């Protein structure tokens, strides 16, 4: 098997290596952008500068915070293909889902459809909504390799007269694939069923993510792939009843309509929102977002192949799991049988490998099978994936009870 081809390490327009633009600990290997993002130094500096301004003159800063957040909304919403007047800043995807769930009224016996690839914490929110009204939650089983057509059909088949709401991911968390949310939502709307699209991973990976998602409400994290400071997400909706949506903190803008009532949240640190346009502009001006997506895909493909090749001698099935609708920056590599079979085990493996061999990873679990969910951002290089092979594969094989060949030879 020829060695996978990695693109040359990326550089900024100044010639500086891209990886030096992020203040990540160089003694740690960072292969899990997907979970918590990573903030470039220029964005950290911008947020620090904003905080300094707030500290220099709190009375200048806080009474004008709504204007500042509105301006940040105006600069951020177009990045996801939305209008500022349809977009509210919230701290994260979980908060956006909570805002929508808090607004909904169901009747006893109503049903919410989620999927078995949904994000657990958001599904728990849907369950709490259902409990408040004596409704139920049912998970549509979406096979790992189902085509878009099959998935649209699955949802159409699962709709019942009692179904009121669908909660569906634009990019799934355990399996890192795109789902045809617009088609699912359009078909549901014909039956009067509303759709909440969880686009937590979509900004930056899907051009105009909110515009293409469909559904009644969409949300996405700016602190994942766009590299904004953590605590920055957008909720977007044109739903006619959107004035029922309330921020999680009641505050002075409570008499304002959606979305401006979200711009004031008592005395909070809104610098995460205000520094978000700096992150978007940084990647656009240094790499271009379209080129960035292409580069992430090239790095992800090569990284996944390198790791899969190292696991092949120990696997009955090909560990590389090519998905029908992949995203640019994440890939799934199947773990040896029995490893990461539950979410708890997958999470424990993540922490063990960080503590024992200094590699940040994400392992996911789907239907009793564990996967390495590999991430690739612009700071990742071939050496990161080589380090995974050298440091993590021996640990993974040992945990799976597999005797390793004498030396792991990098292709
Ligand atoms: C699909 C999905 N939804 C929601 C979330 C929650 O995001 P946050 O922790 O920023 O609220 C995540 C986080 O990874 C996710 O992958």
Condensed summary:
With 411 residues, this protein is an alpha/beta fold. It is built from 14 helices and twelve strands.
Strand content: 5-15%
The number of helical runs is 14
The strand count comes to: 12
**Integer average pLDDT:** 96
The assigned structural class equals: alpha/beta
Portion in helices: 25-40%
Instruction: Describe the main β-sheet briefly.
Output: 7 strands, mixed
Instruction: Describe the global form.
Output: globular
Terminal residue distance:
8 Å
The ordered string of helix (H) and strand (E) elements is: EHHHHEHEHEHEHEHEEHHHEHEEEH
Small molecules bound: pyridoxal-5'-phosphate
Main sheet: strand order? 2-8-7-6-5-3-4
**Gyration radius from CA atoms, angstroms:** 22 Å
Low-confidence stretches: none
Topology (SSEs and partners):
Blueprint: E1 29-30, H1 33-36, H2 41-56, H3 58-61, H4 65-76, E2 87-90, H5 93-103, E3 111-115, H6 120-133, E4 136-140, H7 148-158, E5 163-169, H8 181-189, E6 194-198, H9 209-213, E7 217-221, E8 233-237, H10 271-274, H11 276-286, H12 289-311, E9 330-334, H13 343-357, E10 359-360, E11 363-366, E12 369-375, H14 382-399
Parallel strand pairs: 1-10, 3-4, 3-5, 5-6, 6-7
Antiparallel strand pairs: 2-8, 7-8, 9-12, 11-12
Helix pairs in contact: 5-6, 7-8, 12-14
Give keywords.
411 residues; alpha/beta; 3-stranded antiparallel sheet; 14 helices; 38% helix; 14% strand; globular; binds pyridoxal-5'-phosphate
